[in-house]
Design brief:
The structure is a homodimer.
Chain A lengths: L11 E2 L5 E2 L2 H11 L3 H4 L1 H5 L10 H14 L9 E9 L9 E13 L6 E11 L5 E12 L3
Antiparallel strand pairs in A: 1-4, 2-4, 3-6, 4-5, 5-6
Chain lengths: ~150, ~150
């Protein structure tokens, strides 16, 4: 487990964990949370801007969180997000994709209001089996200080 | 259904739709996507930074998407996100919360590369039953032109 003192700008974290994307889960996630034809129906998806079935961005974000939790990042106190400066999905996520995650610390700073915590700014990239970025975020995480 | 020409800065969209947040769904969502004690276990959550069980931010984002799809926004071609300029969760989402969504168009612009689409910049605020913002995003949506 890593405390604020253990993080420095430039550190990179990955991990062996992979998530395989399942067509049925793409559709069931979308039916509950993001009911659009391009996430629910193969034929409608082919005729849409996505040119084929694509996972909801929120499904991708949720799968990315699972990968990040399992990665080498391991901040003490868990992964507590204080918001994002950047968030985008450059490439659609397709059935059968195998996703992994890489993250890089961009900045480490103390909290102005609380002496026991700090904030790390982290770029997190979710990649498919072809090395294409399917999600890129720059987020701020709350991390406790060791002392 | 609204095309790019139907959107102007300052327009606000809401809707009657509400989502009631269920403790069991908070835990099952977290078990699949965001396995942290503060999303999974009541006692551990009370001892955490959240001071009680809180929904995963990705669960909140997914519930917000459901509300936005059901809202008066209704862009032609569906809600297609081209990324966010801002994304934060100011207040934890708790079991029993009743969420609703409000959105405001901040900017409408044509695509530089594609004559058939444009981008609207939208601030979306997810509110609980006390009127507290639980999620605030500023995102860019791809919207087709009518002609």
């Amino acid at each position: 487990m890593r405390y604020l003192e253990d993080f420095t700008a430039g550190q990179k974290f990955g991990g062996p964990e992979r998530v395989r994307v399942d067509a049925a889960r793409i559709k069931s996630f979308a039916a509950e949370f993001d009911p659009h034809a391009f996430h629910l129906d193969d034929a409608a998806a082919r005729a849409s801007i996505f040119r084929g079935l694509a996972a909801s961005g929120w499904h991708t974000a949720a799968m990315t969180m699972r990968l990040l939790v399992a990665s080498e990042l391991q901040p003490a106190g868990g992964i507590v997000g204080a918001g994002f400066d950047e968030f985008r999905w450059p490439t659609p996520v397709r059935p059968g994709d195998e996703l992994r995650v890489e993250s890089e610390v961009l900045e480490v700073r103390l909290s102005k209001s609380r002496p026991d915590i700090g904030i790390i700014k982290l770029r997190t990239t979710t990649l498919n089996q072809n090395g294409e970025a399917v999600q890129v975020t720059v987020g701020n995480l709350v991390v406790p200080k060791r002392n």
